[in-house]
Write a structure and sequence with these properties.
six-stranded antiparallel beta sheet; 20 strands; elongated; binds ligand 0SF; alpha+beta; about 45% strand; about 475 residues
């Protein structure tokens, strides 16, 4: 994983301390799952005891029977790790203790059921590292401190030395086994979670043949107030095309008071727009009644022109097709996202008596300045400015209106109603795309989508999707 040029980074994610505190509320769930899911291997050994000779013993069928988790704290240690301290984890295990004298284990063997009560503190210092171009968790710094480890043996007869053996030796082995199993399980769950986020993210940024490569371009960063990952953001599409990277990320571009930040370089959004064009998604068909709704909004004097232009044309039978002629260009500015494209519009209909086919075709350059927002689990697009330039216009409408007047009318109608009519149809399409990825399941609080020159920042708070974590743990463990 060599050094990477910051230019390669197209998307940056930042999870701040406030988010870590919310996530920490779920730590108990995760630790509970780790303890419960861990397997506890049999512990066999032999010890020579004075006056008794060699004793062979085995703890088998060790099961955790109940578990309570105390408080847990999280701290982000600059350029080091996420320190998670969990106090007062009390767990009880049950199992069977077999023991025998000498090596005639089977002959002299005895079996006693036991319960073990333990009380420990857990310290896990999770380093964020890179595992096959993904964010990975390294929890090798994992410590269990036992405050208590008590053995209860069932059954009346038990040799006195057994208790002593347990206290002196078995408990030592038991602590080692518990620590290694629990820490192994924690490492497993931590990486499961990291993979889960990455998989969810890849799925979120994919639709059909269009996807985004979010491999990480450098080691994730941990600072006192946040942790941050840098991702390529390179478009994945069946035919490669090159979009030059436009903006450089620097940590000062993001702050730390919101829980989650996403920095998107302009070229990421630009390449998505290009792919949407090549994937034939930038076309729209309007029915007659939809067109009439758009035109009826126009209650100004030009409505008269409209009546003159479409005199004798039955708009109800009309079909209007709108499509991009070239891949749209995306430029992000503080005023909003500028979308520049050349658009063709073909209106086909019949005359009133349905005796002949009539049509209108025109091409126009459009630059629309759009701002996005997300409220009530819906994406909203707002047009703040537009520039329209009618290029060509051919019409087979029997109208006396001059071509100039038609162009004038079209310019006005597109500027006032046409662009918003297209945006009104893009909003639900994008919202249902994001909901198909499960976005609506998340409790997103006051999301802000802020355009800057050359990049876009999405910042938000979230209520942790408790049910999602429980499902995730149930499904994956
Ligand atoms: C969809 C968001 C997204 C995630 C990406 O991939 C990953 C992969 C691994 N970790 C992350 N982190 C950021 C992140 C994104 C979304 C949810 C999320 O989960 C959560 F932490 F908010 C909580 F809900 F679990 C974390 C984490 C990474 O930034 C860090 F912090 F580990 F360095 N992102 C890459 C791009 C984009 Cl747009």
């Amino acid at each position: 994983f060599g050094p990477s040029s910051p230019l390669e980074t197209g998307i940056v994610c930042r999870v701040t301390k406030p988010a870590a505190l919310v996530l920490n509320e779920q730590t108990a769930q995760v630790i509970q799952a780790a303890f419960t899911h861990a397997s506890y291997p049999d512990i066999n050994g032999e010890k020579s005891i004075r006056f008794f000779g060699k004793v062979t013993y085995g703890l088998t069928n060790i099961q955790i029977s109940n578990l309570t988790i105390g408080s847990s704290e999280v701290e982000l240690k600059e350029d080091d790790a996420v320190y998670i301290t969990i106090k007062n984890v009390s767990a009880s295990f049950s199992g069977t203790l077999n023991y025998g004298y000498g090596s005639w284990f089977v002959k002299g063997g005895h079996a006693i059921d036991f319960d073990i009560f333990s009380n420990t503190d857990l310290q896990v210092n999770t380093k964020l590292t890179c595992g096959n171009n993904r964010v990975a968790a390294d929890t090798s710094e994992c410590y269990l401190t036992f405050h208590k480890l008590v053995l209860h043996l069932y059954g009346d007869k038990q040799p006195g030395w057994l208790k002593q053996l347990f206290t002196d030796f078995i408990s030592f082995t038991l602590k080692l086994v518990l620590k290694s199993q629990i820490c192994k399980e924690i490492n497993y769950v931590a990486n499961l979670l990291a993979d889960f986020i990455q998989d969810k993210a890849e799925d979120f940024l994919k639709d059909g043949d269009i996807g985004v490569d979010i491999s990480i371009t450098s080691f994730p960063v941990i600072k006192a107030g946040y942790m941050e990952s840098h991702h390529k953001g390179v478009l994945l599409y069946k035919k490669p095309f090159d979009i030059s990277n436009s903006s450089l990320f620097s940590p000062s571009l993001l702050s730390e008071n919101r829980m989650l930040y996403f920095w998107f370089s302009e070229h990421v959004l630009n390449s998505m727009a290009q792919a949407a064009f090549f994937d034939g998604r930038l076309e729209l068909k309007l029915t007659g009644s939809e067109l009439k709704d758009i035109l009826k909004d126009d209650d100004t004097e030009s409505n008269k022109t409209d009546q003159k232009i479409f005199k004798g044309v039955s708009l109800s039978n009309s079909v209007t097709q709108i499509w991009s002629l070239i891949p749209p260009e995306i430029r992000i500015t503080p005023e909003g996202t500028l979308v520049t494209s050349s658009v063709a519009v073909q209106l086909n209909s019949t005359n009133d008596t349905e005796s002949s086919v009539v049509g209108l075709y025109f091409e126009t350059d459009v630059t629309a300045t759009v701002k996005a927002s997300y409220a009530d689990k819906k994406l909203l697009l707002h047009l703040s400015d537009s520039i329209v330039q009618i290029k060509t216009c051919t019409s087979s409408l029997q109208t006396s209106v001059t071509e100039e007047a038609i162009k004038e009318f079209l310019h006005k109608t597109i500027s006032l109603y046409g662009i918003t009519a297209v945006m009104k149809r893009m909003e639900p399409a994008l919202t249902s795309l994001m909901n198909s990825k499960g976005l609506h399941l998340f409790d997103i609080i006051n999301p802000e989508i802020i355009p800057h020159k050359g990049y876009l920042i999405v910042q938000l708070d979230f209520g942790f999707p408790h049910h999602l974590l429980v499902d995730f743990l149930k499904r994956s463990l």
